[in-house]
Specification:
With 89 residues, the protein is mainly α. It has a single domain, classed as Orthogonal Bundle (Arc Repressor Mutant, subunit A). Helix content is 63%, strand content 7%. The protein has a two-stranded antiparallel ribbon with strand order 1-2. Helix 1 packs across helix 4 and helix 2 crosses helix 3. The longest helix is centred in the middle third of the chain and has 15 residues.
């Protein structure tokens, strides 16, 4: 399913893949678990989260999740999932 609206964090537009990473991290998933659920290598997930943190200037994964919570993205992802708008793979 496609995302129906643009989502921004720290003024940067997020992709569905980035939203999936944030949601997985917020759920407490490890890099290994994220890699398995997204069909990627663990090293790819580590690189993607590093790039995402740099993009939004988050120092750590927990900082990234806190930023997403503070901006309302986490609640928005949950609402989108309930309504079938956001695909988290």
């Amino acid at each position: 399913m496609e995302q129906t609206e643009e989502v921004f964090l720290a003024g940067k537009k997020l992709t569905e893949k980035e939203l999936s990473l944030i949601f997985g991290l917020a759920c407490g998933m490890t890099n290994k678990q994220l890699a398995q659920s997204m069909g990627r290598a663990e090293s790819t997930i580590k690189n993607e989260t590093h790039l995402l943190r740099a993009k939004v200037q988050a120092e750590t994964n927990p900082h990234l999740v806190c930023m997403a919570c503070d901006s309302g993205i986490i609640d928005g992802i949950r609402a989108g999932l309930r309504n079938g708008y956001v695909a988290v793979v």
